[in-house]
Amino acid sequence: MVNNHRAMKVCNDKTNRYEHYTQNKLKPIKYDAKAVTIFHQNICGLPNKKEELLHSLTEHPAHIICPTEHHLQDELECMTFNKYTLGAKFCRKAHKGGGVCILIEEISHFANINMDKYSKEMDIEICAINIVTPSCTIVVVTIYRSTTGDVTYFLNTLETAIDQLYNNTTNN
Q1: Which position among 3, 47, 87, 120 has the lowest Cβ density within 10 Å, counted as fewest Cβ atoms?
Q2: Tens of pLDDT along 76-116?
Q3: Domains in the chain: boundaries
Q4: Residue 38 zone, left/alpha/beta (φ > 0; ψ -120 to 50; rest)
């Protein structure tokens, strides 16, 4: 069975962001029309687990799926994911495995944020999308670092990427 962690955040929520956590357990948040459900999974090979992933989402659907280690290259563009569209991706070219992507419900309006200049195989693999709603702007980022990657390079590049995302979002 696919193991997953779900996070929902209401756009207009001005409360303490930690109020939903008690003793390291996430309390269920009631679904709201203003909520976005994001599903992350280190999938370790999407081709072999695609059907299992989609089946696990039938009971608890997500608006956005963020798989890491999809192990795909050009064939990712050709795959279909029921009601999901490929929103953003990074695929390795020189090394096997790895890769990140964001799948978003077809009914959602989004824009791909080009993060290619930050991605370096093994050290940091990153992709992002921007979703603008009437009440807020949501930036979804999927990141992966191989255990053999350079941690210092990862942290420095991640900081630079987050700064860019923040500046682009607040200046628009």
Answers
A1: 3
A2: 888 888 889 999 999 999 999 999 999 998 777 899 999 99
A3: 5-170
A4: beta
